[in-house]
Amino acid sequence: MTRLRNGFAAALLLLAIWQGLIWVLSPPKFILPSPALVAETMWKSRALIGEHALITIYEVGLGLFFGTLFGIVTAIQLATSPAARTLLRPILAFSQAIPVFALAPILTLWLGYGMLSKVVMAVLIIYFPVTSAFFDGLMRTPAGYLDLARTMGATNRRILWHIRIPAAVPSLGSGLKLAAVYAPIGAVIGEWVGASKGLGYLMLLANGRAKTDLMFAAVLVLGALSMALYIAVDAGVTRYLKRRES
Amino acid sequence: MTRLRNGFAAALLLLAIWQGLIWVLSPPKFILPSPALVAETMWKSRALIGEHALITIYEVGLGLFFGTLFGIVTAIQLATSPAARTLLRPILAFSQAIPVFALAPILTLWLGYGMLSKVVMAVLIIYFPVTSAFFDGLMRTPAGYLDLARTMGATNRRILWHIRIPAAVPSLGSGLKLAAVYAPIGAVIGEWVGASKGLGYLMLLANGRAKTDLMFAAVLVLGALSMALYIAVDAGVTRYLKRRES
Amino acid sequence: ADKMTVLLDWFINPDHGPLIVAEELGYFAEQNLEVEIVAPADPADPPKLAAAGKAELAIGYQPQLHLQIHEGLPLKRVGTLVATPLNCLLVLNDSPIKSPGDLKGKKVGFSVAGVEEALLGAIMAPHGLTIDDIELVNVNWSLSPSLMSGQVDAVIGAFRNFELNQMEIEGVDGRCFYLEEEGLPSYDELIYVANPDLMDKDMIARFLAATEKATQYIINHPRKSWLIFRDTSPELNDELNAKAWVDTLPRFALRPAAVDAGRYARFETFLKDAGLVPSVNPVDMIVMDVTE
Amino acid sequence: MTTGVGITVTGQATGLFPALSLPLRAGAWTCLLGPSGVGKTTLLRLIADLPAHVDFSGDITAEDDQPLPGRIAYMAQSALLLPWASVLDNVTLGAKLRGNRADRDRALNLLSRVGLADHAHKKPAALSGGQRQRVALVRTLMEDRPVVLLDEPFSALDAKTRAEMQELAMELLQGRTVLLVTHDPSEAARVGHAIHVLSETGLESVAPPNAPAPRAVDDPETLTATGALYSKLRGAA
Amino acid sequence: MTTGVGITVTGQATGLFPALSLPLRAGAWTCLLGPSGVGKTTLLRLIADLPAHVDFSGDITAEDDQPLPGRIAYMAQSALLLPWASVLDNVTLGAKLRGNRADRDRALNLLSRVGLADHAHKKPAALSGGQRQRVALVRTLMEDRPVVLLDEPFSALDAKTRAEMQELAMELLQGRTVLLVTHDPSEAARVGHAIHVLSETGLESVAPPNAPAPRAVDDPETLTATGALYSKLRGAA
Ligand SMILES: Nc1ncnc2c1ncn2[C@@H]1O[C@H](COP(=O)(O)OP(=O)(O)OP(=O)(O)O)[C@@H](O)[C@H]1O
Ligand SMILES: Nc1ncnc2c1ncn2[C@@H]1O[C@H](COP(=O)(O)OP(=O)(O)OP(=O)(O)O)[C@@H](O)[C@H]1O
Ligand SMILES: [Mg+2]
Ligand SMILES: [Mg+2]
């Protein structure tokens, strides 16, 4: 509840800054339209925006799910196998360092212009932060717990399951929060590179037609979406972490 | 040393996978050129690539420095002021979700076509992971330390400085590792927003011309750069954390 | 010297020959100009930035200009770079699409959002098809790769002097449907646009004079001018540019400042009839002759 | 020299302890014993104005009617050393947190008096349990506060070190108001000027020996008091 | 019933303790005392085959010449409870880590015997220091191992609870080989079948009382042993 209110307050503040920029700098409306104009466009084009937003939401949801899943699995792999660690970590960094934009055109050539390429983009973009954060957590298990587990005759797998993973949950939480913010970008980049639907597509289309107001309406909806996702994930993670130790 | 060796092994593995893909799928060279072709292009165009790479390295360095700085400052602001927290965090999430290309004309309008706009992009892109990771760390200070500091009559500022920040250093380390990987992407995206120099420019140029071999050469150089940066940051952080508690 | 910034529509390519040659041969300097040439990532941006006064000139596309003016951008065409359409509907040579009428149910890729639907709709209309009969896919900059890899059946927005050569180099033959042969009014593909409220007419006139001189040089010395273009930057020296150079030469506007008012009036009417703009703007809202 | 202030705690904590009144005489050592889990730590946290998990209704007031916060040093039940700071830095933490110059000489002197002179530059991870507790003790002694709350400060120490630490603490905290939570009846009998046993039914006082503290452990009077405490404690839980 | 195995520790740790030989008799309680920081915890870690910070040269062998790892339960000096797991889950951790069915009935039974029946579903953060230590004790008792190493297991408990816990541990660990590190001479005198004092100069043995353990604390024989230990310890550091 408070979080929702905070989100709302933040939105108001953003609006105020935006309006302030308009007043102070009075940029041309084809570069930065006024909030009022964008609001009007948003309302008028609500059906259009809604239709495209649904597609993006769907892609983001799938991307978030699979990206988190793969990230968790990879982090666990890395944490359990020194061999995997040796080879995979630099590759991970490398793969991440190759800008998705650069790979996106090629990916779309392989995967087509359907939903798959966008989901893959979202997965790719959140994969690294999730993996990296969770892995860091898994490698920072307090030594005392590990000693204890060792004397108890635990297998590595069970130590992982009962001690290292629960101890790394706060770090995974940090990773998930990053993922909540990045997944929408991933999907939009995917749409940008090649699509016939989605908010990213709508943005490009509007931009190409010099309909800056419509573009900003789409940008705002995307931003609101990400913000909502972030607030939800943050609230969920915080509450879970608080609850589980009391 | 071992890290360097690992990086090298990883690079070899990547090459093997790539060559394997070529053998198995034999994709047309405008989709995936062979390592040999890319190596040849890389060698032939070494002067060209080198010149552009230098620009990118410079942007990355500046971006990393300022992004980390701003991220640290913001995280501290957020951690110390509940008001800032209420408002700024959702805005942060929101700001990340706005695709840069929507902002590109605005940025260019304000910052011009020079290096500044690229550095700003690199800063923008690493700002969020650094802030987010460090902030999470700052909010997770063990309660016992805070109680202790309170009875000692500490001001909030000094608690921050002597307790919360050192306790959050491992989280900041996680953030820095992400930043090392993202800063090059930021610079490249910045170059895409409008540039006439840099690896990102070269990539787009090559891509626009279906010179996939040159694009891959540039991508590889960028990847190697990021990997080196990541390995360096990872080694630094790990060693620092180990040392400071023994 | 007077400093001015020119925003290109895309990376430097043979379409920009007159600018490069003018720069290299010192024609801008002759006109007391110091020209900075900047390439953007998104071709939609330069007109906006020119309208915002961030550059004296931007290179744009005529069809887009009509829309941009209707969206309220303070822009006018002040010169012409390429005086014929370059855009074409591109398919693979062995494609079953033998006429625009065969597009029904196909995927068509495009890159620059804007008037593609209008253009496509116009060339399909004689065959009894509408835009709803096809699936439009934004393929961004992968026009020829998306076609060659079979992800789309056709692309609109390909440049006849460029994508065809590119596909030939990759060993895949393409086939173009020329829009102006399929019932579309002819138009200027690449134009210079500027903000009429901010511009310095004299400076633009001098700029156009320099490019006019460069264009004449290119026509007179096609081989030498290619060498000049190629040697300005190592990344320009490749097979594709060499081929495209030859195909682009005949299309440069020989009189960059000259206005063909009828061409713009016809196109504006065509857009109104296609329902893409709400009204018909008078020609003097769209173009101006800076030498007057 | 800092001198102690008397404090009176009156009140009850719902579900933990019934209405009670605990007087802390100015300049004296008051010992608090009682079964594990009865609420001793909670009581200390209440006095130190730290968040506690109970509903406490009552008053914690100083004789001089000045506010207490800022006049209390609190040594918690666990050592709570900062793992990234050296022993010396941990010990001078209070000064740093208040922005004062850290008195390193005094710190080094105290560290050598608790037998940790050689460990001043080590990190806490390299210390044994009892060494960590002594560092926490030194950190508390470095705080120059009129009221000192000690929660089982000697529990991890061997008998000899424990006796030495008791003497050191009594010497250095001379004149302060000290509340010591301990499980060791002989410790209470040795150092207490007042001794209380907390149980679920309330607070009971036990007469301390008459001799000035610290007393000899094997002094008959001390032994008697120890014995009395034992039997009281046996009945308490 | 699991029965203990005798163990002999011989060797030296450079910079910590000189060459020594510590026999752990099968089925008996051996008590180890000594000044804080002398190396008691280190010795326990060596026996438990855990990483220690010293160079140990010597042998730790079981009478039956079978390997020791897997036959030892170790209760560390700090409670080390998993903060996210309930008391019950913490107590049954061993079974879960070995993939066995957790014996919840036995766990609940033991928890109620240490007085924590009402706390079985709380998280460790809601426990007092002594309660946490008892949970760690129960966790160790749940391990059905022939050799049990206890590092100051009762240090945070009041006298009465401590006595009860000693009795409970002795009952449940009947027949096991137990090594108990303690700072409390009377505890050693009460439960030890063998008592050793570790100091920088080596290991010294002290004769335990003859009565079967656990002995009454106030039995004259126990008191004598306690006194003897005290004086030995006073000389040790
Ligand atoms: N990780 C470590 N690195 C370096 N030195 C250590 C480390 N752990 C312990 N020591 C040192 O080794 C010595 C023995 O430590 P140990 O924990 O075995 O003592 P102890 O006899 O158990 O003491 P206590 O009764 O205080 O628990 C101490 O001087 C301590 O400072
Ligand atoms: N954070 C908490 N939330 C809920 N209950 C708590 C919390 N902290 C302590 N308790 C409960 O309050 C009671 C008193 O705890 P307290 O720590 O004051 O005991 P204590 O007398 O100091 O015991 P010990 O001698 O074992 O340290 C205990 O029953 C404990 O379970
Ligand atoms: Mg307590
Ligand atoms: Mg120890």
List the strand order in the largest sheet of chain D. 5-6-7-3-8-9
Q: Determine the strand fraction of chain D and express it as a percent band.
A: 15-25%
Main beta sheet of chain C: strand number and arrangement?
Answer: 5 strands, mixed
Cα Rg of chain D: 17 Å
Order of helices and strands of chain C: EHHEHEHEEEHEHEHEEHHHH
Radius of gyration of chain C: 19 Å
Mean pLDDT of chain D: 90
| Proportion of helical residues of chain D | 25-40%
Ends of chain D: how far apart?
A: 40 Å
Which strands sit side by side, in order, in the main sheet of chain C? 2-1-3-10-4
The general outline of chain D is globular
- Give the mean pLDDT of chain C: 89
User: Which structural class do the helices and strands of chain C define?
Assistant: alpha/beta
The hetero compounds bound to this protein are: adenosine-5'-triphosphate, magnesium ion
Give the helix tally of chain C: 11
Q: What is the β-strand count of chain D?
A: 9
Question: Helix count of chain D, per DSSP?
Answer: 8
Query: Regions of chain D with pLDDT < 50 over 5+ consecutive residues?
Result: none
The proportion of residues in beta strands of chain C is 15-25%
Q: Report how far the terminal alpha carbons of chain C are from each other.
A: 23 Å
Report the major sheet of chain D: 6 strands, mixed
Structural notes for this entry:
By secondary structure, chain A is an all-alpha fold. Chain A has 10 helices and no strands. Chain A folds into 2 domains: 32 residues; 212 residues, MetI-like (MetI-like fold, Orthogonal Bundle), CATH 1.10.3720. In chain A, helix 3 runs antiparallel to helix 4 and helix 8 runs antiparallel to helix 10. The longest helix of chain A is centred in the C-terminal third of the chain and has 38 residues. Chain A is globular. The model of chain C has no long low-confidence stretch (mean pLDDT 89). In chain D, helix 4 crosses helix 5. The termini of chain D are far apart. Chain D has 8 helices and 9 strands. The mean pLDDT of chain D is 90. The chains are: A mainly alpha (246), C alpha/beta (292), D alpha/beta (237). Chains in contact: A-B, A-C, A-E, B-C, B-D, D-E. Chains B and C meet through helix 5 and helix 9 of B and helix 3 and helix 6 of C. Bound molecules: adenosine-5'-triphosphate (ATP) (2 copies) and magnesium ion (2 copies). One magnesium ion binds next to helix 1 of chain D.
